[in-house]
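Appendix B. Worked example

We walk through a single record from start to finish. Start with the input: the chain for Alpha-amylase, Flavobacterium taihuense, length 479.
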Amino acid sequence: MKKPNFKMYFITALLLGLYSCNSTDEVNDKSPEASTFKIINVTTHDGRPFSTGNSKTSLTGKYVDNPGGGVMMQAFYWDVPSGGNWWNTVGTKVIAWGNAGIGSIWLPPASKAQNGAFSMGYDPTDYFDFGDFNQNGSTETRFGSKAELVSLITKAHTENIKVYADIVINHNSGGASESNPFTGTNTWTNFTGIASGKFKRTYADFYKNAYGNNDEGAFGGFPDLCHAAPNVQDWLWKRTDGVGKYYKNTMKFDGWRFDYVKGFGSWVIRDWNANVGGFSVGELWDSNVNILNDWANNANSSVFDFACYYKMNDAFDGNNLNLLTDDMMWKRNPYKAVTFVTNHDTDEIWAKELAYAYILTHEGYPTIFYRDYEEWLNKAKLNNLIWIHNNKATGNTSILYADNDEYIARRNGYNGNPGLVVYINNSTVTLERWIQTNWASKQIKDFTGNSTWYPTTQGDQWVKIQCPPKSYTVWSLNI
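Next comes the structure step. The output line below is what the pipeline stores for this chain.
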């Protein structure tokens, strides 16, 4: 009998052990939490991306609507520098924004307001004074002149970036005092002396008046526009030379952000959209998904997803990512949900990078805040997430796992695009978890660069992925 070759046996046993660790043991090591977590198929539509209306065809190669849809930039913040240079400042940004994949910019109210050169525009006086009439103490607005605004819009369109106007039609400010027979007092409702001479208003155009004592809401004690008044309807959205059609056809705005839509009926926006057209989103400051969804459907408009905003705040800052499984507007009605992390009115979320990773990998129309992008956060990381959104965030959504510290969701792909898996880790240690993908026997990678793993999915589509502490990874096919 030959002497046993212990060296050969040792090498064979070692190789078998290594094989076992890389296959069988890992299969048996699938985390029981992920295996037992009931996958939540959040949306079940056909997977098409969010649409803002007619897509622009790129003439410059800078921007086209992408597989994942578009990204909006809120191109201002509260109390941007006064001095009439803001339109020029934004104009210097649009080429870089277009190269990064920004598809639209939302501008502040562009017309002359009561505080003239110092106003942020939310106290409108003359809807047709874009900084070319000397009234309310200045010729230019806080943001600049009409010529500079037109130049900005033209530059944005050259980059195939759409431009949305902030429209304040709930209230006015800066009118002269007049005797008001409906109140029996003097009210600041005489706007017949506005410099443009367009859309002159009197007490008959404000509540209380012949149409009633009030509508759905007033704001700040300002005169409350009565949208039931024929003069108001004509000048806001019906006339060919009225506010909506002038902004769209002459100033070349592509859409609208409607301020304080709680202050008037949803039918106002529905009629505006039917008569004027263009993309629209309403500021309905309410965390109740039912209220948001009802308004969006009745107004035939998108709406800011305040339900998502407040859930993200509680989830990320309250260290309970389970809350991300709760109802939100983008889940209820993804084609009418505009998501955001902060804006000029509210800035409560501290874990902003995680929040941006969430909205830029999920459904809806994500918005980036100017100061987050240009001043406060890591621009390279945001650009990476914008790229991921535009190129990989496709299809409907399934939540694969959630607990206090972890959240994993899958975008299921659309029209040949494979979609993605996003892993958010709010803990202080690196985490790993087995999850089920839509890909069998395919190598995947993390497109954020936060993980250096290049795992291959098993035949049953399961794979182990990882995520660093207080961070995120986004996985898709390595192609």
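Two observations about the output. The chain has a mean pLDDT of 92. The longest strand covers residues 471-477.
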